[in-house]
Specification:
Length: 247
């Protein structure tokens, strides 16, 4: 009679399965932790890059904003002078300054403000403000760009009044004289010869005065808002320097 040998498979103890499960769980957990730390490191690095970019935007804006303030206030003075000249002008009086001021305050580029928006555009493309962990900084960024948008909206209103003024004063001026107060570089100049208005029409002058006053008022309001925006830029920079040890 043949004797068949039976192979008996020894059952593994439950502790063996427990350790297998534990080691697998530990490997998965450590992998998740390492990946999470890597993502955290990358996001922190990106946040600092965005903060650096925003800081540079603010620095650039500060110079441009001050130039804008100076320009708007100077133009308001010119508008004030133009109002006084138009109130007492006669057909026989030289109108050189009137031509110059009309040219100056009705330029479409007058008071245009374009704050640097590269950082906010990059953040929007990257998924929003969630990358900026410091809530005070993210709130400041949103507030800063919102204030800039309001200024741009008011600026557009000013452009409408400039266009209206250009259309209104046309019957008063001589085209040939109007051309003379601009040089080859497109700068407004005074010429040695006397320039005169084409006609004096009280109704047209009255309409011009209304638009000039609107331009003057808007310019002063814009200058005030831009001054506040410039101050905001300075405050944000100081805060960034403190929180991020930025120099």
């Amino acid at each position: 009679m043949e004797v068949h040998a039976h192979t008996h498979t020894e059952r593994k103890k439950w502790t063996h399965y427990f350790w297998e499960f534990f080691m697998l769980f530990l490997a998965v957990t450590l992998g998740f932790f390492v990946e999470n730390q890597r993502e955290h490191f990358i996001e922190n690095k990106r946040e600092k890059q965005y903060i650096q970019s925003f800081y540079e935007d603010l620095t650039s804006d500060e110079h441009d904003l001050q130039s804008n303030i100076n320009y708007l206030r100077q133009q308001s003075k010119e508008a004030d002078s133009l109002e006084k000249l138009l109130l007492r002008i006669t057909i026989k009086q030289p109108a050189n300054q009137i031509y110059m001021y009309l040219r100056s305050i009705t330029r479409s580029s007058a008071g245009l403000l374009f704050p640097n928006d590269r950082t906010i555009v990059q953040l929007r493309n990257a998924g929003g403000m969630r990358l900026i962990k410091n809530k005070n900084v993210s709130d400041s960024m949103v507030s800063y760009y919102r204030a800039a948008e309001i200024i741009q909206y008011i600026t557009q209103e000013g452009l409408i009044h400039r266009r209206t003024l250009r259309q209104t004063y046309m019957p008063l001026i001589n085209a040939e004289d109007f051309f003379k107060v601009l040089d080859s570089t497109n700068s407004v100049i005074n010429v040695p010869e006397s320039l005169y208005l084409r006609k004096i029409d009280p109704d047209i002058i009255n309409q011009c005065l209304i638009e000039i006053d609107r331009i003057k008022t808007l310019n002063l309001a814009l200058a005030g808002r831009i001054e506040l925006l410039k101050e905001k830029a300075g405050y944000i920079k100081v805060y960034i320097e403190k929180e991020y040890r930025h120099k």
